[in-house]
Specification:
Blueprint: H1 2-29, H2 34-61
Helix pairs in contact: 1-2
């Protein structure tokens, strides 16, 4: 289970980095391409939902 804890921590860090970039690009494209901006913002929401689920799994493993 230690390996899985390590992997979850790594995956969460990696996902958060990418999610932050998606969010930045959603903001950058807002004015010139609102449709793309909205899709990126939707992706950010879904990635954050996934991160919440992975965080719960990690919390359970740390008990």
């Amino acid at each position: 289970m230690e390996r899985l804890k390590h992997l979850l921590e790594h995956w969460l860090d990696h996902s958060r980095e990418h999610t932050k970039k998606y969010e930045e690009w959603a903001e950058r494209t807002k004015e010139n391409n609102p449709e793309i901006s909205e899709l990126l913002a939707e992706a950010v929401k879904k990635f954050r939902e996934g991160e919440e689920i992975l965080t719960k799994a990690l919390e359970i493993l740390k008990r």
